[in-house]
Write a structure and sequence with these properties.
Layout: E1 2-3, E2 7-12, H1 16-25, E3 33-37, H2 75-81, H3 85-91, H4 98-111, E4 115-117, E5 119-127, E6 132-139, E7 145-155, E8 160-161, H5 168-171, E9 180-182, H6 186-194, E10 198-202, H7 206-217, E11 240-244, H8 265-272, H9 276-285, H10 287-290, H11 295-308, E12 317-320, E13 324-330, E14 336-342, E15 347-353, E16 355-358, E17 362-363, E18 402-405, H12 410-413, H13 423-435
Parallel strand pairs: 1-7, 2-3, 2-7, 3-4, 7-18, 9-16, 10-11, 10-16, 11-12
Antiparallel strand pairs: 5-6, 6-7, 8-17, 13-14, 14-15
Length: 486
């Protein structure tokens, strides 16, 4: 096993968040960093890089700009390096194509010497003799193991697809591949899904809406014939689309200027100070802050349905909010039967469909390579990381070095955890903590909103003076406008 000298920082996983950290650290001379990822190259949600899809955050929320707009790794510099500055300027875009964001991140990852792909991390343990963490990884194209030492480690392994419990056996079974799947794999099976009669999309967020819209755009005829429960005839191109979601409505994401202040350091500080049970309750209630759909996508779906129903043609879709999928079975003809519930009505019903796409989101999981040091981590009562204001994971006393996490702190830092808006700020916060000094200045206040109760005044307000009878009027010269009420 090859062993290298100790690094100041080793990052595991190279998604946008750890890539942001790598980009900011690149400007720090003398700081030894290494970032590892098992993938052969950078890729960001490849199954959803559909034509016409854009980021839900402005281009300024790139890897570095909101922390260091002078960085050479900004999106604007990417445009300059690729001779796209004038076309971008003329396009007047604030929200950029997802495919270009993916290409921008790939450009940064391939340019940074600290990023190493094709390196599968197998184990992280504490090396007490070296007073450092030992990170072991294997090259995916070989059997050799490499062991590196790190004074500090940052986990940026991302999240994994979430599938409703009843559908998991189908997603994992080869016989149903391409017919029951998570939205992360939609791009792989898109052509096949376009050819079936009836597709059900489960999940009311942005990914679900984009898949519904993409499928509807492939429905090339205004009418439909045959099928079950309004399904289409097998001779008609493009699928009939059902959109099912447990949210009470297909609702737009909060995007007002004041509402967006939930994605600031100010709100994070407020959220972190709340009791754990309050934080858990808030995250559940705030789904529209980070799980809603862009107004543009909802408008596109509505406009498409409006156009397809001109002249009385039946709609090529059915939309069912407030519905949960409780079970799945296979019919005699090979189609699927979804057992559904509508909790508000207290009713149940069955949907028959030929394919199911689960646009049901992602969640943080504990990576298996942490098993070797699981006993050193101070987990909370639900087995989650305890994370401080610098994104440092709580460890048992006496453990040298520090372990940090990115996008695994929704329960401690709130709805901004998975949002790209805070990526550069969080990376700068971690980098400053790693260095033990301010390398990248971060703002102390970023919101107009005061979250929580305002601080008490330094001195109590003066009591109003007691009312007095008005002085007698002596003449016009003494007549004055009454004082405005307080």
């Amino acid at each position: 096993m090859a062993e290298q000298l100790v690094h100041d920082l080793v990052g595991v996983g190279i998604g946008p968040f750890n890539l942001s950290l790598a980009a900011l650290a690149d400007a720090t001379p003398g700081l030894s960093t290494l970032f590892l990822d098992a993938k052969p190259a950078f890729v960001w949600h490849p199954g959803l890089l559909l034509d016409g899809t854009v980021l839900q955050v402005p281009f300024l929320a790139d890897l570095v700009t909101l922390a260091d707009p002078t960085s050479r790794w900004s999106y604007l510099n990417y445009l300059r390096e690729h001779d796209r500055m004038f076309p971008f300027f003329f396009s007047e875009r604030f929200h950029i194509p997802r495919r270009e964001y993916d290409h921008y991140c790939r450009w940064v990852a391939e340019s940074l010497p600290s990023c190493r792909f094709g390196a599968h991390v197998t184990d992280i343990t504490l090396d007490e003799d070296a007073a450092a963490f030992a990170v072991t990884y294997r090259a995916v194209d070989g059997a050799a193991l490499t062991r590196v030492l790190a004074r500090q480690v940052v986990l940026g392994v991302g999240t994994e697809p979430v599938v409703p419990q009843p559908l998991r056996p189908y997603v994992r079974t080869a016989a149903h591949t391409g017919r029951v799947l998570h939205s992360a794999d939609y791009g792989t099976h898109r052509d096949r899904l376009a050819g079936v009669r009836d597709v059900t999309v489960v999940g009311g967020g942005q990914s679900g809406a984009e898949i519904v819209l993409d499928l509807l755009r492939q429905y090339r005829e205004p009418g439909r014939t045959g099928g079950t429960q309004g399904g289409r005839g097998a001779d008609s191109p493009g699928p009939y689309v059902r959109w099912v979601a447990r949210t009470p409505a297909f609702a737009p994401m909060e995007y007002s200027k004041i509402g967006l202040e939930h994605f600031t350091p100010d709100y994070i500080r407020y959220f972190r100070a709340l009791p754990e049970h309050r934080r858990d309750e808030l995250v559940e209630r705030q789904w529209q802050l980070y799980k809603g759909v862009s107004e543009e996508t909802l408008a596109d779906i509505h406009d498409l349905l409006y156009e397809r129903t001109i002249g009385g043609a039946p709609p090529p879709a059915a939309l069912h909010p407030g519905v949960t999928v409780a079970g799945i079975g296979t019919a005699a003809d090979g189609s699927y039967e979804l057992a559904c519930r509508h909790p508000e009505q207290g009713s149940t019903f069955t949907l028959r469909t030929d394919a199911v796409v689960c646009a049901t989101g992602y969640a943080a999981v504990r990576p298996p390579f942490l098993d070797g040091m699981a006993k050193l981590i101070d987990w909370d009562e639900r087995g989650r990381y305890r994370v401080d204001g610098s994104y440092r994971v709580a460890l048992q006393g006496g453990v040298p070095g520090a372990l940090y996490v990115q996008n695994a702190e929704l329960h401690t830092h709130g709805v901004g955890a998975p949002d790209l808006t805070l990526g550069a700020w969080r990376a700068a916060t971690i980098l400053n903590a790693v260095a033990g000094r301010t390398l990248v200045r971060v703002p102390q206040r970023a919101a107009w909103t005061t979250f929580g109760a305002p601080a008490q005044d330094r001195a109590p307000a003066q009591a109003p003076a007691p009312a007095q009878d008005p002085a007698p009027v002596q003449g016009p010269a003494s007549v004055q406008d009454p004082a405005p009420p307080v």
